[in-house]
Amino acid sequence: MKAFALTTAALSALAFTSAATTGSTASNNFTMSYPPARGSDPGQALTGPCGGFNQATNYTDVQSQQQMNFTVPSSQKGMISLFYLTAENNNTSWKPLANATVSGDDTTVSATVNFDGKASPDTKGTVKAVFFRTDSNLSDKPLYQCADVKLGKEVKSTPSNAASLPIASSLLALTAVAALLQMH
């Protein structure tokens, strides 16, 4: 009987550990669905820059203005920030593309990015998505995903609204500061 009791206790402990592990990785189930991510492993999602998938894979053709789609864990809130790294000249500087708010009400989120001024025509690169979660127990644990993209001829090396770019950036910064002040 003692052997049976020990085995039952061991099985209970194993089941508890398995359930705890499954729950924690489920909260990390963030996926870039279009363009398709290099790979998705909730156990590695906390590992930057690309959620554990740091080697380029298949390149997806994208437009100069492209919608990006994501699957996010239900009820989690935060922001998805998108960055672009060109594959040209061994570049290591990620350029910001866009942000998407995650309200916590949806499991799918989209953002439209504009590659003009951030990429050259007919080039390859990587889009990195970082999900910054605002839930108090997850705020210091961003999730990472990457997708490899190939840009077409319509991409402009400089943005079409280059003259208004400094003004737009200033307005964006002021809006962010105002929103942060209202939160406190």
Automatic annotation (TrEMBL):
Residues 29-157 form the Copper acquisition factor BIM1-like domain. Keywords: Cell membrane, Glycoprotein, Lipoprotein, Membrane, Signal. Residues 1-19 form the signal peptide. GO terms for cellular component: endomembrane system; plasma membrane. It is a lipid-anchor. Pfam families: BIM1-like_dom (PF20238). The keyword Lipoprotein applies. The keyword Manganese does not apply. It comes from the Eukaryota. It is found in: Cell membrane; Endomembrane system. PANTHER family: COPPER ACQUISITION FACTOR BIM1-LIKE DOMAIN-CONTAINING PROTEIN, HYPHAL ANASTAMOSIS-7 PROTEIN. This is Copper acquisition factor BIM1-like domain-containing protein.
